[in-house]
Design goal:
Helix content: 25-40%
Number of strands: 9
Shape: globular
Order of helices and strands: EEEHEHEHHHHEHEHEEHH
């Protein structure tokens, strides 16, 4: 496999002729827990979507393990923002997780016993086995996020793209998600997550991309997550790593 899980070259994305991402070059190494951080409107969600072909770039090249995304789709798991989903849709936890397998078994085939066993194992991995038959509308925000993670886990992907996996979850769920991400890394998986809480970047991740329409910096957290780079990314009013930072929220990213 290629040394880089994700390679982006000269990526530009524009909405109505306004650049949301501008001339991005980025390599994310295989086997890292990588955060994408930046202010509102920085293009973080757009970057995740561009990798999957969900938005059309104006220019640039994107490779997943050395090949275009369409050739590597089966190697990529996606956890969207929880707020982007209709949680009133009448379905239960097990069925949502089974949806993660439809790319392999086809939308018109019923999942068999082997698929159900695999889905239940993923649900157990996120601590939700007792809720497998519950309607998703009855779940708390933290429980809903765990279901999303289970749906991605059941795909057994190599690269996981996550858009704000910690948004709106309780402290217990956040700790459980962190433990799960670190377990995934120990299994050789690569995780790239849009993240908004600067206080936890150093504790949760080993690689970081600082983004504000342009790539401001990218690399190992210990080298890149510096007061100078944060100031360049956010402008004034941002304290350095280790300080008591005001939480910079990024609901929806606005691009």
């Amino acid at each position: 496999m290629n040394d880089a899980a994700l390679e982006i070259q000269d990526l530009t994305v524009a909405y109505r002729n306004t650049p949301v991402l501008w001339d991005i070059d980025l390599d994310v190494p295989f086997g890292t827990l990588a955060a994408i951080v930046g202010p509102n409107g920085a293009g973080k969600t757009t970057l995740i979507k561009a990798v999957q072909g969900l938005v059309r770039p104006a220019a640039g090249n994107i490779l997943v393990f050395g090949k275009p995304y369409r050739a590597q789709r089966a190697l990529v798991g996606y956890v969207p923002q929880r707020g982007s989903v209709d949680w009133d849709f009448p379905t239960n936890v097990l069925d949502v997780v089974l949806m993660g397998l439809y790319g392999r078994i086809g939308w018109f085939k019923r999942p068999g016993g082997q698929q159900r066993k695999r889905a239940l194992a993923a649900i157990e991995q996120v601590g939700m086995l007792s809720c497998a038959s519950r309607q998703i509308s009855q779940l708390s925000g933290g429980q809903q996020q765990r279901v999303f993670l289970a749906r991605a886990l059941v795909q057994d992907a190599q690269l996981y793209l996550m858009d704000e996996p910690f948004q709106g979850v309780d402290a217990t769920t956040e700790k459980a998600i962190v433990a799960l991400l670190k377990h995934m890394k120990s299994d050789g998986k690569t995780v790239i997550a849009v993240h908004h809480d600067l206080q936890t970047v150093q504790a949760y991740f080993d690689w970081v991309t600082l983004l504000n329409v342009r790539k401001m910096a990218a690399g190992p957290v210990d080298e890149v997550f510096t007061p100078e780079n944060l100031h360049q990314t956010y402008g004034g009013g941002v304290a350095g790593p280790g300080s008591q930072l005001a939480e910079i929220d990024d609901p929806g990213d606005r691009g």
